[in-house]
Amino acid sequence: MKSPQPADGELQELLADLLDGELSEDARRRLNERLSSDPQAQALYLDFCETHAALSWEHGLVIADLEPSTRDIVPPRTDSISWTRAWTILATLAATFLVAAIAWYSDSDEVVEPTAGGAVVAQLVSRIDAVLTADSLPWETNEIRVGGYEIERGLVQLEFASGVSVLIEAPARFDAVSAERLVLHAGRLSANVPPEGVGFTVETPEADVVDFGTEFSVEVGGEESEVHVFSGHVQVKPKTESGSEQADAIDLRTEQAIRISEATRQPAGIDLATDRFIRSINEPQKQYPMLVKQLGFVAYYRMPIRGGGLACSPKKYAGEMLMGEGTRPAFAPGIVGASLRVGGRSVGRGAHIENPPRLTSGHFSLVAWVYADSRPPGGTVATDVSDGDGRFALSLDRNGRLTGTVTTNEDKQVSVSDLSSVPLNSWQFVVLTLDGKQLRMYRNGDPLVSTPCHSMTSRQPSTLWMGTSAEPQRFWNGRIDELALFDRALAADEIAKLYQAAGTE
């Protein structure tokens, strides 16, 4: 059990005013300053949150059984009570009222269009191929002011003064109400809230989502709202049909998620959507990319979220993103960080590289993670074939099976195909290798098929394509991630280690 935090006169006075409903605007700012700069105040606040969450669990307030909360707190007895017990009750009340009060102070029912003189509530720190409008006009400045906005395309990242970071994915409509409150009318967002950002609230048509310092995502669409908590603790307050908050709130903790429909207004537990939300624009440094580097790649496409091009290591093999009609960004959550999204509602139409990686040994390996939304015949993962001339291709055949083809130094084409159609809506690890004797295909670390094959042609192609090909309408429909090319055939044990590494930190 944690020992109680030392007494803090100022913080206790702020909390007392909060409990009495007398917290002034200056006092609220001071409370936020303490949480921003004072580690002891942050620790005390975290104790509040942990105590509140623990008591919520004990009294059935968490969504484990999706029963609404009933906040029955036993009044203190007139006889002596231990300091710890008194502090626990105070902590529970403070944690609850702290969030409620901050949200109350920042609430506003009137939303106006942004104006040059309006209050600045956040900064636009990243635009990824984004079309952001206010009142149907392009919003070009990086200052986000009070008012309503629409993201017609791409991805934006907002940063609030409290340190709260919010990623919003097109298509989306939202209102910036204050530095502590955002209304999401439609679309997806992911929020990362530090301790000093406690009380940040995302309002949807069906509920208010109040944060206790956490990482969470919200999606609004189809007359329902979903809340997914990846780390920490949020409080969800469903609304009545009139739009007012219900008396009962629901606590969600790490790896919990709910859906609230407009029709019933009743929360229902759902699975955490780990593959749906873009939660960061930075690529994590995990074991998998480090192992790819150790194996000596020629070119490695991690598919990081970038504007204007396809990144590669080394940079000389970087490429150009291809765009088309759509609303979703050309990036999506990947197996490690982000991935390239192609087809569907995405603007992504793949990518092409005008300076393809040089493969000179006649042996090679193509390594990629693929996620199929459907199985279009000819859907291409990667190829450098144009006008019938090239070295390799990895694509779907007419039966939806992944098929690898290489052109040998004798100008013969040799192919291997998976034994079954590619699974939908799940990540698959695919490797194609050629050692001058056998062309092999692996999936999810296991060898599937092989066929005799001589070395690959040494002719250098003019273009490398990903997610599409030189032939129109051969788009992959789904995602591609962590694509790497090697100038040698990876061994079976190396491939198995790569597959295992993707699931580790």
UniProtKB/TrEMBL annotation:
The keyword rRNA-binding does not apply. Residues 362-493 form the LamG-like jellyroll fold domain. Keywords: Disulfide bond, Signal. Coiled coil: none annotated. It comes from Rubripirellula tenax. This is FecR protein. One of its GO terms (molecular function) is sigma factor antagonist activity.
